[in-house]
Amino acid sequence: MKVVSNVPDSRMRLEELDGLRGIAALIVFCCHFSCAFIPGLIPGQVEHPYWIAYTPVGLLFNGNFSVSVFFVLSGFVVARAAAKRADPFYINIPLRYLRLALPATASVIFAWTALTAIPNAAIRLYQLDHSLWMAQTFQQRFPDFFHALFDGMVGIFINGGSFFNNALWTMQIEVIGSIAIYLVYGIKSGQRRRLIVLLIGFATLFMPHYL
């Protein structure tokens, strides 16, 4: 006999979301691959994209849609964690920053290593397909290692992107959103919190269109 519990779900990780996260990650990978090697599949990368990009099939490599899914999932997970944690925001925010910055920095260092090892690769690829993605990647005259390290730990959050790893443009939005969530959940009054959430939601209607 199945017993139905009225106790709220206290699991820190929701495995039900892993499948959605995995599908979205695969689509983003396909988008990045297409941006670099088949830019005609991605509107905005070339002047005249392939017709298939504007069909339902385009969802299979539409990175913007999947990134939006990631933003929603990230906001939900961070808000859920903030609601359960008793730590103050001045502890949660640095921890969240490190969770974003450390893997991002590792990807920047990996990209820096690959670009410096094969310095002409990005140029040759751009000459083949004139990909905007490759045009926004460092080509020759690469900065030193410490520039790459700073780019991953600080630069991506200030500049909203990286010429080492184009995919890191999302990090600025992630950190701003995370800070906002932890600050909101740091307010003890539920009524004030709901009011601020409504105001933030209204303000987002006038924010720049990132995607």
Would you spell out the secondary-structure blueprint of this structure?
Elements: H1 16-37, H2 63-84, H3 89-117, H4 121-129, H5 132-135, H6 145-159, H7 170-185, H8 190-204
Runs in which pLDDT lies below 50 for 5 or more consecutive residues are 1-8
Mean of all residue-level pLDDT scores: 84
Count of beta strands: 0
Order of helices and strands: HHHHHHHH
The structure class reads mainly alpha
* Overall number of domains: 1
Gross morphology:
globular
Main β sheet profile? none
Distance between the termini: 48 Å
Helix content: 55-70%
Query: Count of DSSP helices?
Result: 8
Gyration radius, rounded = 20 Å
How much of the sequence is in beta strands?
Answer: under 5%
Task: Jot down its keywords.
211 residues; mainly alpha
In short:
The protein is an all-alpha fold and 211 residues long.
What does this structure look like?
This protein has 211 residues and is mainly α. It has one domain (17-204). 22% of the residues are buried. The longest helix is centred in the middle third of the chain and has 29 residues, at 89-117. 63% of the residues lie in helices and 0% in strands.
